[in-house]
Amino acid sequence: MALDFMDLLGSMVQGTMSSSPVVSSRMSNAGSGIQDILSSLMGAGQTVTQKVGGDNLAAGGLGALLGTLLGGSKSTTTNALGGSMMGLLGMMAYKALRNSSGSTTMTQTTTYTQPTPQQQASDAEIILTAMIDAAKSDGQVDANEINKIMANLQSSGAGQEGVNYVIKKLQGPMETAKIVAAVKGRPELAAQVYSASLMAIDVDTDAEKKYLAKLAGAMGLNQNVINNIEHLTGAGSQSYVC
Questions:
Q1: Is there a domain that residue 179 lies in?
Q2: Which of 61, 94, 101 is closest to 78 using CA atoms?
Q3: At how many degrees (to 10) do helices 5-19 and 78-100 cross?
Q4: Where are the alpha helices (DSSP H) in 70-205?
Q5: Angstrom distance (rounded) from CA 82 to CA 80
Q6: ∠56-34-216 over CA atoms, to 5°?
Q7: Which one of 28, 85, 123, 230 has the lowest number of neighbouring Cβ atoms within 10 Å?
């Protein structure tokens, strides 16, 4: 059976939120900010599915994520949470890219198309890879940290196959080249990768800051987009780009 990356992403989100108050706060800040984006989209006469689309948002996937982030139901499945996380990242990317252009309209060239299930799974894998790379970017993922991550994933409902996948990734080399290749020609995915990386860790070491700077530069994100993402995630007071 193929690994369900959406499900594993949901487990990863739950695990990182439960283990880090800073990460939980950042995701809550991002989730709260998305409500304003939704209001702006609706006020401009555009449906969410038309602009950022995806059935995840239209079917309430974003609501499921916001409910979890802001203290709602704990019964949200990891698959729904994974899909909601992708919806949240998509909304953040839209906002960050739109604002970076200097346009004040909602009808500029930054648009999103409905992803296929295969594309969703592929994008979720890249987001997972980015979050895992961020977690090990300070070079301090020792046995105790791996055991902690494993416990968090298992308590979040991840199966053994998913846990093994994450552990193997944590113990392997950085995959910046793979991430950069995946986002080539897709600025919205690059913005999602940076957002997910920023929300996955506390960012309290120079090594982590340098990694984020290197990643953003390699993906071609300009300073305006980076500033917008950091603002959306509540990290606007500290820039990670050198």
A1: yes
A2: 61
A3: 80
A4: 78-100, 117-135, 143-155, 160-171, 176-183, 187-200
A5: 5
A6: 90
A7: 28
Task: State the total domains in the chain.
Answer: 1
Asked, for residue 227, whether it belongs to a domain, the answer is: yes
Q: Has residue 241 been placed in a domain?
A: no
Give the residue from 190, 187, 195 showing the smallest Cα distance to 30.
195
Cα 51 from Cα 48, distance rounded (Å):
5
The answer to whether residue 64 is domain-embedded is yes
The amino acid at 139? G
CB atoms within 10 A of CB 21: 10
Cα–Cα distance, 224 to 202 (Å, whole number): 22
**Contact 61/87 with Cβ under 8 angstroms?**
yes
Per-residue pLDDT of the chain (242 residues; tens, 9 = 90+): 578 888 888 888 777 766 666 666 666 566 555 555 555 544 444 444 344 444 334 334 445 555 554 444 445 577 777 877 787 788 888 888 987 764 433 334 445 555 677 888 899 999 999 999 998 998 877 787 788 888 888 887 788 898 899 989 988 999 999 999 999 999 999 999 999 998 888 888 899 999 999 999 999 999 999 999 988 877 654 555 54
User: Rounded distance, CA 103 to CA 182, Å?
Assistant: 27
Q: How far apart are CA 94 and CA 108, in angstroms?
A: 11
Contact criterion met (CB below 8 Å) for 69 and 27: yes
Three-state DSSP class for residue 104? coil
Phi, psi values for residue 112, rounded to 5°: -130, 140
Burial of 49 (C-beta count, 10 Å sphere; 0-12/13-18/19+)? middle
